[in-house]
UniProtKB/TrEMBL annotation:
It comes from Streptomyces doebereineriae. This is Helix-turn-helix transcriptional regulator. It comes from the Bacteria. Transmembrane segments: none annotated. Pfam families: DUF5753, HTH_31. Residues 16-71 form the HTH cro/C1-type domain. InterPro entries: Cro/C1-type_HTH, DUF5753, Lambda_DNA-bd_dom_sf.
Amino acid sequence: MQHGPAVRRRKLGAELRALRTSAGLTSGEAARLVGWHQSKVSRIETGASGVKPADVRLLLDAYRVGDANLRELLLVLAGSDETGGRHHWWHAYRGVLPPTYRDFISLESQASAMRTLETSVVPGLLQTPEYARAVTRAAVDGLDDERLDALVEVRLARQDILRAQPPLELSAVLDEAVLRREVGGPEVMGRQLKRLLEAARLPQVRLQVLPFTAGAHVGITGPFVIFSFSRTSDLDVVVLDHLTSSLYLERKEDLQAYTEAFNTLQIHALSPEDSLDYLAGMGDGA
């Protein structure tokens, strides 16, 4: 969790606190069992500090947690690469990526499913190299070529999760404005539309177009992402991106509101089959 988002650190701490309580131990007793000071246990449980996977193993052993799936999940939250999770390849770009972007990639790399509404640009997981370059150059002022190249490399490397085993399940609703905006010019946009067509045919991708004719809709206030995790819905989180930061929403009320909003958007959007035909028609005219 040292490099993970604070939302997961808090969730990990809360789960460890619940397991300690179930084991009938006080924080002081737990600390003595593993040879720590009580304050370290308290900091971990409140999410005030990160915790190494090895320390999580110590606590789980002390609490006599034998559930293999639960142990694996908590080790993934602690940042372990030994549990079958995807390796933290983005650490090689630490000097280039801001913390909020690293947090986002960390969540994305461990999620089992991602639902996203995009109102301005193609989702990063579906961008072509030329499109990614044009978007990055427009979004970040004063980029030199070396840093621009690195950011585009990161964007493309993220796409590997769609080919992983198991792959991330991606559901995307794209406002028609995403498809009409000529990012990088007509040729770049033409190739991007073809890429979307290819992606929409993948079994792990569900892509829907929300046409202008749908009128005002619940997502008109802005894009959002919902990450889901296979072993427990308690880790699900909504991410709202801003120009200089990202906001993580983890309350059940927020998750329910955004889940209902996404479901409504899917109802008003074209079906996946009609969206394919729509994209094909745009591609023919590109």
